Amino acid sequence: MKFSPLLNELIQALTCLPGVGNKSAQRMAFHLLERNRKGAIDLSNMLHNAMEHIHHCKRCRTFTEDELCEICRHPEREASGLLCIVESPQDVLAIEQTLSYKGQYFVLMGHLSPIDGVGPEEIGLNELETRFSAGGIDEVILATNPTVEGEATAHYIAQLCAAHNVEASRIAHGVPVGGELEYIDGNTLTHAFSGRRKL
Amino acid sequence: MKFSPLLNELIQALTCLPGVGNKSAQRMAFHLLERNRKGAIDLSNMLHNAMEHIHHCKRCRTFTEDELCEICRHPEREASGLLCIVESPQDVLAIEQTLSYKGQYFVLMGHLSPIDGVGPEEIGLNELETRFSAGGIDEVILATNPTVEGEATAHYIAQLCAAHNVEASRIAHGVPVGGELEYIDGNTLTHAFSGRRKL
Ligand SMILES: [Zn+2]
Ligand SMILES: [Zn+2]
């Protein structure tokens, strides 16, 4: 950008957003300057605010600006005795959007990955054990991703549950609702068969 | 986002970016919080800075943080006697990237559109006439878009040029280099034929 070094810097800064390359960043910068300076100032303030105030919930490790997130503060959810374990806050969001789960969560913020130096402590499993010891959890639902690492992490946590006499279950894998069999990968189909239920 | 109203507000604010819907905004917000808080703070500062300091060049109307943009301050470009007229700062950028034009620019920040109340004054044509009267411009290159409005705007400015005894030319329309004839629309092909040159 010969005509404005500052505009150049803005375009550069916008590429910190995932999926935004130089070309999209240019389009964004020009759009904001030409048509939405107020939106840009609002975004600037929100970014600052969010990065300063959003941290991890002391109890479930999801993102929140409070000490405990709204889900953890909910008495009915605590009373449910259910604890769903997921890899990321996005997973909490996806499950919440189904409106069908009314228990609590524990967010690993990752999965076990010994090769990357991510062990049980890095994904908060000592905190999880402290929580098991405190009591009040009847069942753990392992909702880690159906990947090799997610399965290994679920398996590891299932053993912790057994050691603490907490029931553990794994979410079902199978053919997505509305999916067509011919487009489903073999691994999923195998899961769908082995997880079949009597009608 | 039940667990963090502030995160919800950040996601909302990110949708002010063009091409960013709720789903992408979510992905961006989580990415920044999890992996690039420094990038988010830098972006916040750059947005603020850019919106506060970037305005229109007094001479060519493109974006700049100075009174005159770097192109307008360049003595060789002034000496060229060439003035290229474009609709937007992005067009300046596209032309600059070709490295083949070494004259000055005038940015309309739009095109004539009587139906939307955009007349000659709104696209700075009075400033352009003042510039014609000041002298020093030998040729105007009309590089507005090859749309109905862009053509009408080019035609209108060509008349102003004639009134001020300034030569005016229109950029060539035709088959893009590397384009395949069968995929080119008929209008462009017509232009390509009528604009043919002897070899
Ligand atoms: Zn929580
Ligand atoms: Zn300028």
TrEMBL record, chains A, B:
By its UniProt entry, which SUPFAM superfamilies does this protein fall under?
Recombination protein RecR
Xref: InterPro entries = DNA_Rcmb_RecR (IPR000093), Rcmb_RecR (IPR023627), Rcmb_RecR_Znf (IPR015967), TOPRIM_dom (IPR006171), TOPRIM_RecR (IPR034137)
Q: Which domain of life does the protein's organism represent?
A: Bacteria
Name of the protein described by the UniProt record: Recombination protein RecR
Q: Which terms are listed as keywords in the entry?
A: DNA damage, DNA recombination, DNA repair, Metal-binding, Zinc, Zinc-finger
- Any GO BP annotation: DNA recombination
Q: What does this protein do?
A: May play a role in DNA repair. It seems to be involved in an RecBC-independent recombinational process of DNA repair. It may act with RecF and RecO.
GO MF annotations, alphabetized: DNA binding; zinc ion binding
Q: Which family does it belong to?
A: Belongs to the RecR family.
Q: Which organism is it from?
A: Alteromonas stellipolaris
Keyword DNA damage carried by entry: yes
